[in-house]
Amino acid sequence: MLTLEDARKALAKGSVIIFAGPCTVVYEGRATSRLGVGERLVLIKKDRSILVHRPTGHEPVNWQPAGSMIDFLTENGLPVIRASNANELLKISFTAQPSLMVFDLRDTAEFEMYASEEDMKKAVLAKPSLVEPGFKPLEEERQVKRTGRVDILGLDALGRLVVVELKRKPATPEDVRQLSAYVESLNSEFGRKPRAILAAPSTTKAARREMEKTSVEFRCLTPRRCMQVLREAKGLDSYL
Amino acid sequence: MLTLEDARKALAKGSVIIFAGPCTVVYEGRATSRLGVGERLVLIKKDRSILVHRPTGHEPVNWQPAGSMIDFLTENGLPVIRASNANELLKISFTAQPSLMVFDLRDTAEFEMYASEEDMKKAVLAKPSLVEPGFKPLEEERQVKRTGRVDILGLDALGRLVVVELKRKPATPEDVRQLSAYVESLNSEFGRKPRAILAAPSTTKAARREMEKTSVEFRCLTPRRCMQVLREAKGLDSYL
DNA sequence: GCCTAGGTCCCGTTG
DNA sequence: CAACGGGGCCTAGGC
TM segments (chains A, B) (predicted)? Predict the structure, then answer.
């Protein structure tokens, strides 16, 4: 039978802890929440992130991000977990003795994710015609100066400035507004409107309406196609 | 020693399952990911949501939302979990015998959250002067017709139409664009520009610039203040 | 430290 | 069903 003292030691040692049992949960911070008695799992990781999971749902019902201060207390003979940081407090009060499990997890593997918006950008830089024939991205340095608002700056076949926004999901009116706001700021800076191209697998209807109003152009581009292009480019690289 | 057959039965019965052990994870779907060998916790909930947790970090490294199809297989004498839905596949392959835990969690409690944007709206409807002296929200019916884009429609002390956008966090340029897009659509519909008020605890600098350009007004309003007003309104209700 | 943008975001609500 | 916006979003990157 593991005790709170075991939990303290395990956490100090860098283990992962799970409590399983009936509890109530109170949270005060950016918002406030209350959760009555029910049986839940409480995960405490070695970085002192903490998750309260109900028996359903992808998302934890309550949590505290990594780096919080974790205290194990006893109130009325039952365990209480306090997880706090500068502005927030999470308090988990068990209403019966929970079971306690300790895990020593070694995990140093790298996590690799593909088909992100960043990958789409790499693909377009490797093969600019994905945007349109004759499209030429500006050199990296001039890209960087404009970073943060637009994904790719370039010139079209006629030498006109083009701002390209990439989306891995169907484009929304929000995406269109973001792009046309950027066009406007370039316009007032240089006195000339650049072309704007929104490259995404599709658009919502409202986005399409917004595009017509603001003369943002749509170019169909899927993450899948971009990954193909990246594979081909890589294959070519290793061949050469 | 629990077996995969036990896991199948537990899941069918509505229990929550945790596997703990070394595994690799492959995901194919909206994106693609690869995770090499490492020791992790795999939670499978009764709604067949599934979470793969590494020893650090609030977020699961891989997952599948509720309702996926879960298969427990054996490959080379070791357990494999396949969690799939129409378009996505998550495959967890253990590289050594994992431990298996089963939990029967009863949890029917209601989760209550306060200080949401919705609560801010309630507070303003209870005490419209939170927006400005003389502000009068339109009746609920005329609100509803306009729902989905703007939080509150009302009239100011001079009878002018006012659209109010509430935010519980510092207002961003995106928030300003959203509001002014709405103002524009009302303008082209009625031929007259309504006033626009963004009520939030603060604004980012870029948002402030965007507000000046588009004549969106700022009103400082915190979730905390709104909760006070709601408590007072409630207290008054129970007194009357 | 603030601020911005992405995410397999998830999730609820509405048309 | 798509679509739209909130969230204690979290997290990574820039400045």
Answer: none
Average pLDDT score over residue span B156-167: 96
Q: Same structural domain for residues B147 and B53?
A: no
Task: Map residue A149 onto helix, strand or coil.
Answer: coil
Percent of chain A at pLDDT > 70 equals: 94
Strand D, nucleotides < 7 Å from a protein CB: these are 2-12, 14-15
Give mean pLDDT, residues B231-238.
Answer: 78
Q: Which of residues 200-229 of A touch strand D (CB under 7 A)?
A: 204-207
Nucleotides of C under 7 A from a protein CB: 2-11, 14-15
Instruction: Count Cα atoms within 13 angstroms, Cβ side, for B146.
Output: 22
**What is the residue range of B226's domain?**
117-239
Residue A25 CA, chain-centre distance (Å), reads: 26
Domain count, chain A: 2
In the chain, the amino acid numbered B37 is: V
CA distance A40 to chain B (A): 6
pLDDT digit string, tens, across residues A134-157? 999 997 666 665 555 789 999 999
**pTM as predicted:** 0.95
Residue from A208, A199, A202 nearest A226 by CA: A199
Which tens digits make up the pLDDT trace of A177-196?
A: 989 988 888 888 788 899 99
The reply to whether B40 falls in a domain is: yes
Return d(Cα B142, Cα B144) in angstroms, integer.
5
Do A161 and A123 share a structural domain? yes
A186-193 CB contacts, 8 Å cutoff, 24+ apart? A186/A161, A192/A161
Closest approach of A237 to chain B, Cα-based (Å): 22
Q: Of B178 and A58, which is predicted with more confidence?
A: A58
Q: What is the pLDDT of residue A121?
A: 95
Q: Which two tokens stand for residue B138?
A: 């339109």
Same domain, yes or no: A56 and A135: no
Half-sphere exposure of A145 (CA within 13 A, CB side): 7
pLDDT at A144: 60
E-only strand ranges, A5-144:
16-28, 32-44, 50-53, 62-64, 69-75, 78-84, 89-94, 99-103, 111-114, 136-137
